[in-house]
Design goal:
heterodimer, A: alpha/beta, Rossmann fold, Alpha-Beta Plaits, 2 domains, 9-stranded mixed beta sheet, elongated, B: alpha/beta, two-stranded antiparallel sheet
């Protein structure tokens, strides 16, 4: 069984567009949307929910005011400025600032603070026209996105094992932080979708650095390559210098948005050259994987 | 006044809006809080005058004092410590620097040492009228998973007397929330596609929970459907600006040129956006 993750560093370069196309081209696979705080793959694959579960991401402190002596120790020790305090009303926890580290619970001399399991989101197993898909919805403003990504990947792996599938395709999150790390560690191959803008290149280099940090093989694809041919040449050079295979150059074409509005992948909707390039790209990636 | 520029979906044009706004505003302060992938410097071309390392405390175990009781590993909510036989292992990448291990250790065997996770760079950039304004960006080290401390440290530099622009990271999780907390107003930049609308709704949800008023900018406004406009009307969120797709403009962006330097029409539109935001905050 092989696992592929599509990432980009910079947001909006076309990760989900490419993932949805691969989803409708590949066979014997399960899909995992690892962009848990702004998941979009479901908008193209219009999944039918088979199972829904709560995501218990961690624990959060709760104050028992009957036991609280209003000593202020929790307020003084909290390193996240997450506790406000007045001598009349005692401490109050600001859940948005709280890191759920439990320091306050351990420090409280009255044992008035306890850590309770919190539901930080939901995750789903769904059926789509492109096969099963595992996806999630992190609660608004919630923590622990890396943990939820790991959970989504564990579930998709399980499905791949029971259904005897050859491939897991992960739609990754933007950035280079905790959820991205969770989406790429241990996968067989990463595809970095970039664009020929200074931001696109800057972020591609950083996210490629992350792949190297974890020693994960990566491929590059340039989206909207004809927007700036000088920058496209820079990306080609970067690939050459770093021994990275450039698997495709997708032209800039507003028809891609039409496909999205029609809820179809660019492999399903007739996007002319875009569809053609994406098909060729998938053939190359398949060869790389198997 | 503190204005956060955010989006939910990545790549809708947050940095375009934030940097151009900084270039037309009076007395601006630009803070790039997208510390995983900071890009504002590519457009504002600041002169960096100062670099500050961002550190988080991580535990150091005194092997002489440690009794291997495992209290620290048990107390750590982030599994950053493990006791195996006579050895305590510290996983720095998992540590949030909360200090709980040090507090609970019965032998007082834990002290703290600093670990560098990124840096802040401060400097000055120049507005279109030639006025200089302050620039700061946070840069997370590659491989560092914990970005909120860098955002927090960048926000400590906020000068409330200025028109403060916070360029937020995409998404709706902790780094984005950390950026929005304490803002007077939030501008959401979106695009008129199903992806844009879906992620916009999530981002508006964050602003509402934090009780921050918001407005919307639609980028590439003519490239999809009109669901965003319907959504704004339905939710009574002011639509502050619509920018149609323009290949010249996209090309200028790709080279790191700011829109307001590229076209007089766009400069006027951004000045109008600036005035609208100020009016919204004063409402």
């Amino acid at each position: 069984m092989k696992e592929l993750t599509i990432i980009s560093g910079k947001g909006g370069t076309g990760k989900t567009t490419v993932t949805a196309a691969f989803a409708t081209l590949a066979e014997n696979k399960v899909l995992a949307d690892c962009d848990v705080d702004a998941a979009d793959l479901h908008l193209i694959l219009t999944p039918k929910e088979l199972a829904r579960n709560d995501f218990i991401g961690g624990r959060a402190p709760r104050i028992n005011y009957d036991k609280c002596s209003k000593c202020g120790e929790c307020f003084r020790l909290c390193r996240y400025d997450a506790i406000s305090f007045s001598e009349e009303t005692g401490p109050e926890i600001n859940e948005f600032a709280c890191d759920c580290c439990a320091l306050c619970a351990w420090a409280c001399p009255e044992k008035a603070i306890s850590m309770l399991d919190t539901v930080n989101g939901r995750w789903f197993i769904s059926a789509t026209r492109a096969g099963k898909m595992v996806h999630a919805r992190l609660g608004i403003g919630e923590d622990n996105s890396g943990k939820l990504v790991a959970l989504v990947r564990r579930q998709s792996k399980q499905i791949a094992e029971t259904d005897k599938l050859d491939l897991i395709i992960n739609d990754g999150p933007p950035g280079i932080g905790c959820p991205v790390t969770a989406a790429i560690t241990g996968v067989d191959l990463v595809l970095i979708v970039t664009e020929p803008t200074l931001s696109g290149i800057h972020d591609m280099e950083r996210v490629h650095g992350l792949c190297r940090h974890f020693d994960i093989p990566a491929l590059i694809c340039i989206n909207r390559y004809d927007l700036n041919l000088i920058n496209t040449r820079k990306i080609r050079n970067y690939c050459r210098e770093n021994n990275l295979e450039l698997v495709g150059e997708i032209p800039l074409d507003p028809v891609v948005n039409k496909a999205q509005v029609a809820r179809q992948s660019v492999a399903e909707y007739d996007c002319g050259l875009v569809s053609q390039v994406v098909r060729e790209m998938w053939k190359k990636i398949k060869r790389e994987l198997f | 006044m503190i204005i956060a520029i955010a989006s939910g979906k990545g790549g809708t044009g947050k940095t375009t809006i934030a940097t151009n706004l900084a270039l037309v505003a009076a007395q601006a302060q630009y803070l790039d809080c997208d510390v995983e992938e900071p890009n504002g410097h590519l457009f504002l071309k600041p002169e960096i005058e100062q670099k500050i390392a961002v550190e988080v405390p991580v535990p150091r175990i005194d092997a002489e004092l440690c009794s291997h009781c495992g209290t620290c590993a048990n107390a750590c909510e982030f599994n950053a410590l493990a006791v195996i036989g006579e050895k305590v292992m510290v996983f720095n990448d998992l540590c949030h620097g909360c200090g709980t291990c040090m507090l609970v250790c019965p032998e007082k065997a834990i002290s703290e040492t600093a670990k560098i996770i990124g840096k802040l760079e401060n400097g000055r950039a120049q507005s279109v009228s030639g006025e200089s304004f302050t620039f700061t960006h946070g840069v997370s080290n590659v491989g560092n998973p914990l970005t909120p401390p860098i955002i927090k440290k960048a926000k400590n530099l906020i000068d409330n007397g200025r028109f403060v622009i916070l360029d937020a990271p995409p998404g709706t999780s902790c780094p984005m929330v950390q950026t929005l907390i304490g803002s007077d107003f939030c501008v959401f930049v979106t695009e008129p596609t199903p992806f844009g609308l879906n992620d916009l709704k999530l981002a508006v949800g964050v602003a509402r929970q934090l009780e921050i008023n918001c407005g919307i900018v639609i980028n590439r406004a003519d490239s999809g459907d009109d669901e965003i406009i319907k959504y704004c009307r339905q939710e009574k969120i002011p639509l502050l600006l619509e920018i149609p797709f323009n290949r010249d403009l996209a090309f200028a962006y790709s080279k790191g040129e700011a829109a307001v330097q590229h076209s007089a029409d766009l400069r006027a539109r951004f000045q109008d956006l600036y005035a609208k935001i100020v009016a919204e905050v004063k409402k």
